[in-house]
Amino acid sequence: MLLEIKDAHVHYGKIAALKGITIEVREGEIVTLIGANGAGKSTTLKMISGLRPLSGGSVLFEGKDISKMPGHKRVLAGIGQAPEGRGIFPGMSVEDNLHMGAYARRGDASKELKEVYELFPRLAERKSQAGGTMSGGEQQMLAIGRALMAKPKVVLLDEPSMGLAPMLVQQIFSIIKEINRRGTTVLLVEQNAQQALQIAQRAYVLETGHIVKSAPAADLLDDPAVRAAYLGGD
Ligand code: ATP
């Protein structure tokens, strides 16, 4: 097991955002977490990357309890995150933004840079352009590319398709599949449940801080309750 979340609780002040969730991610998988607005999907990723503290339960990575490990150490341990809202450095060039992703790891990152440019030719074409002048979709690619520069074992993706034109949505999902094919485990949070379930092996449904269902992704695509709630009801 690469990543195990056991009975995890997270609070914002007195408000419980996660009320004892258990999630397992095996090496090599794409696992998706679906749920309505406010269900706690982003909070789950922030908890795994160390941006939100646990108020109960634990997070294990490669069998080791990392619940109290600071975020930058989790990056070094192999947990990469492309944060919601992208969080790129607007004044820095695309290439410098990518180098920032490898900064904590040190050493030569030219191989990773080459791989990111293979995955995202658009970034290679625009490597000298300021990150902040890239389009929304391009910035999303940059955020994912930057996360990959640290050579993560697992990458946490928060709504990578948000705000993208339909053609780019397709592209992002096929790139996620390719990232996984090249050996990176993926934990994917998505509003776009249909597409997420199509590329994932397994899925969890989160409702108001509880996991209400976990199953092979293909089963959830056929599940009438899931279809009604998250897949447009047809
Ligand atoms: P969305 O799909 O809308 O992004 P989500 O499933 O990712 O939703 P979270 O962002 O994890 O949901 O939020 C879970 C709950 O925690 C919500 O009720 C939200 O209002 C609350 N919450 C999130 N961030 C904070 C914060 N910084 N302070 C207080 N409450 C918060």
UniProtKB/TrEMBL annotation:
Family per record: Belongs to the ABC transporter superfamily.
Q: Which SMART domains match?
A: AAA (SM00382)
Its protein name is: ABC transporter ATP-binding protein
Q: Name one GO molecular function term.
A: ATP binding
Note the InterPro entries from the entry: AAA+_ATPase, ABC_branched_ATPase_LivF/BraG, ABC_transporter-like_ATP-bd, ABC_transporter-like_CS, BCAA_Transport_ATP-bd_LivF, P-loop_NTPase
Residues in domain ABC transporter?
3-233
This protein's UniProt keywords: Amino-acid transport, ATP-binding, Nucleotide-binding, Transport
What residue intervals traverse the membrane? none
List the Pfam families: ABC_tran (PF00005)
Entry annotated with the keyword Nucleotide-binding: yes
The record's listing under PROSITE patterns reads:
ABC_TRANSPORTER_1, ABC_TRANSPORTER_2
